[in-house]
Fold these 2 entries.
Entry 1:
Amino acid sequence: MTRVLSAKFGGFLTFGVIQAGVVSAPGQPTVKDLLELYNFRQTGPDTKVHGVIGNRIGHSKSPHLYNAAFKSVGFNGIYLPLLVDNVANFLKTFSSPDFVGYRSLDLNVAMRWILLLR
């Protein structure tokens, strides 16, 4: 997430890998994903952040669908898959003033069941 959102928070560079699967740190996106999927060159302080949260999130197609839709209509937004184990902690952290800019979050199916069973 921090690599994809670095431009939103004032960063002037980020790290991406050339080849998928050959990473120097967990979660590093490819340069291709940064540029094409996450529209990195257009990300800035006014970019609205949306995402799907869950504990098994890597398979989600939502970022591909929403980011393509955002780009096609010229919406200044980004949609991220967010690995979350504890929804309460996540909401507490990301509702702080340091993370203003989140607009919407979706829950994956497993996370919905966890919340329903509590």
Entry 2:
Amino acid sequence: MSAGHITNRNLFLVGDIFLTILRSGHNLSIGVLRSTSASLNGVSHASLNITIMTSLRSNAKITGQLLSLVPTDTSLDAAQMFLWDGGYVTARSVIQGTSDSTAHVIVVTVLGPLMEPVNPEPTFLRLCEDINSNAFSQVNGGQGTWQIPRDAMQAACDLIWAKTTQMKLSLRSIVSVTPLDAKSFPYKFSDGTVAVFSAEANSLLAASEGERIATCPLCEARVPDMRCHVGQHILCALCNMPEVVDMKEQVGETYVCGFCGHSDRPECAITITVTASSAPIWETKCTYQHVFKYRAADNGSKNKPCRNIPLKSEGVELPACIWDVMMLTDLEQSTAHIPKEYWITPPNVSSGSDKENVPTSSSCPLKCSVTASTSYKPAKRSRTAHTLLQQPTALLA
């Protein structure tokens, strides 16, 4: 992670700081911990080689205490940082045999591949103008502490989550913590929103609990209706319109899933059963799917004009006005080096070359000059002919 002056670059020592992913409620976020022990092959060590410890096949285990962090003020034009306030995140512990409880520091043990060493940046509180110094009463001496950039924490979260999926570990295998103070973890901005999280993992957590997913995988916005929201992203992509939000991922190119906006994902494959007496029945394993009223969505309304619904592609024809815009002559498609099997040919419409060979109904030959006969007016030209061939399929699939 970021370079600093506290920990060794090659060796991980007991007492060093590390990052790991933790579950808390419906959030999978990053935790910053101080290590208290390390083992490899069941043998305790005072230090471990970082490369060996974090490799995917490593059986190293690291135990640490979850640290309490304070964010800098986001209103200032500066990089977002999280500073250690000198304390630890605690959890409630019931005293056996009584109804009383006590608070204890949260201690977790994680696999070596699921942790990332970090070099914190030392800092002096009196030099920080974007923090509340009263929040650092536990810092020894009240002067010096260390900080970690929020971007580094998010990068570690994404990296470790990618390792988790690569190792085919279940969400339930990730350590879950329940802090005594819900504000202490997951780490939050000053406005109370979670600062670091995995949108994909949060969606899986929500789905596993039977809840509708409310975080868009493309822009990470919280939305009340995922189908309508993703439909807007797909529409912008089809029309080459700029997005008004910051996109974390772009809409897929072909056979786009109407629930998540991704392409070429086996779980997004959809099966549609069309019946004569009822609305079509669809089935998909997309994580972002949710139940909606098919007929109401197909008709649209003032409040919900979006008609982003799954359709059976066979027998669905585009309106003539759409074909007029998309249609290219055979010459144009040949000049563009489009393979003939991908040429656009609207249904029940003969090609331009066929029309030229049809004799006129009049017995009198048409009089026209050589100049007029050789003039050529191209049809309305599409900016991306090959892409447009696939896009209606994506829209209707």
